[in-house]
Amino acid sequence: MSGQAALLYLASTSPARLATLRAAGIEPVVVPSGVDEDAVVAAAGPLMATELVELLARVKAEAITSGDVDGFILGGDSVFELDGAIYGKPHTALVARERWNLQRGRTGTLHSGHWLIDHRGGEIRGSAGAVSSARVSFADDIADAELDAYIATGEPLHVAGAFTIDSLGAPFITSVEGDPHAVVGLSLATLRRLFLQFDVPWHSVTTWRGVA
What we know:
Layout: E1 8-10, H1 15-23, E2 29-30, H2 37-44, H3 49-63, E3 71-82, E4 85-87, H4 93-103, E5 107-119, E6 126-138, H5 144-152, E7 173-178, H6 180-184, H7 188-196
Helix pairs in contact: 4-5
């Protein structure tokens, strides 16, 4: 595969994951997985946060293998862990506010799962997964009015932990320990290592692969 372009299919509708890939020079084909995440979680039973995100990433990637896909498939998922509790997308403003009441002025861990399937030739030739995590600390002086205004934008309703670091939620984050891209939901360093497991060098999957 060395020296050739490897087409990447992204089994996710996350704008942050897509933007991260594009910023790194990868233009994926976006194919929504259509996976019912709540049903997968319920069927799996109790899992550690890292096990959960890797499972969801794998299920999303596998969901599009039945389509017209010739290349690599990437599935991803993220959860936020605080005091041993696992939090996904809040979905409602009320839940988002409850989450922020817990995490304001504190530190939690954002886990992002990745699952890469080698589907070159239109069939599964192999797969590999990994989880990247980062500890995220939030400001302790966030006023209720600030939180209400942020939640009213609708952004925190659709992201793990009810916050972003690459958009409107960034001013409320004081520090990140670990892989910063894990907080966005897609670790480029992790993805590079996954490609290497298939003997695919990073530059061969980017738009700058021809640059000497």
